[in-house]
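#random but structural
TW: two for the price of one
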Amino acid sequence: GGTHPAADAGARRNGVAMDRTGHILLLHHSEGERMRFVADWFAAGLASEDKLFYVDVAGWGVEKLTDGLAARGLHVDFALREKRLEFVSLEDMLDLGVRGGLCDRALVDEGFPGVRLAVRGDAVAQVLSRVEHLAVENELEHLCREGRMSVLCQYDGRTTQGPDLARSLDLHPDWVYEADLSLRRRERLIRV
């Protein structure tokens, strides 16, 4: 393996640190903004030598996703060549925490220091029932607490409002990215 010399180019976006880890909520306002955040967050993961997983919930396919991430500055060719980036299905993600699942394979079998997983939470909510979606979010939270895994859950800020927004904020206790705002919540303390 190797570290690309420009792997940390996206480690900061408009002054916002993209190397943050945990169970993170991204409230985006356009597809371009969403892909920029994912590309920058993944670039920070390349810099820290993490394994990167992109969950293709919408079924866009590898070519469209690699083109989109590369257009936003992620060194996709390097990441794929070094087996640092994988595009996986929702079904793969649902088995993430099981023995032999994606997380176990990346951390134990492949020896990566950490895992970063990007998933469109709003797309998951459209495919699964509310109960199943909450169970997935709770499992992701548990996996983030247990160790070396971080998740960037993306929700469309234009349509995630009211009770859905309140629930999304509650489900993602570590960091919230919203346009140019980034904050961290710990109990009643907010760090911007």
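TW: number two ↓
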Amino acid sequence: PCAPTATARETGGLTRVSDINRIPGMGGLPRTIFSQDVDNIFCGQWIPELLSNVVFDVDFAYWMSSEYDGLVKLSVEANDGDEPTPVYTGQSNADAIVERGDFVWLMDDAYGIIRVNKETGAATPITTPAQLGGFARDLQIDEDYVYWNQSGFLKFQVANGGPGSGIATGVTGYTPDFLLCIVPGPCPDVVLV
């Protein structure tokens, strides 16, 4: 076992490695709704709790949890120490998650993109790993489509599953413009940067 460091002994043996704060939109002070403290971060004896980015809707924060082995939610009114509620445990991690409406989308090169209902936890595969194309980043959603950047190749897919394609290559960033055009088929309007 790893011996506690002098700093750990002085601070009661705990080091804060992650926290989620609620920041008021107007007035007030930020408030911690979740935190993870460990004995010694240098011993390799701890596992990070947050296995994805954290996204919010009006009522909840969502993230992939190592403790619950899947997607969890925690009320934005929670106090530090309150336990999150498991939503979906079909996957244990995600490279990115996005929240919109009634759903949270999970993306990982091991399983593609999955849409999870926030209330029921019901999951729908949207994109297979082959369609995703390997490691991807910059997952974004608009009313009708899900977008991602796979090594500079901007791709999209219908947000409830179905056909999709590539849009452009050499992309380093983008913002969905939330507009559609109908030529011989749907073509999402995306601002490329």
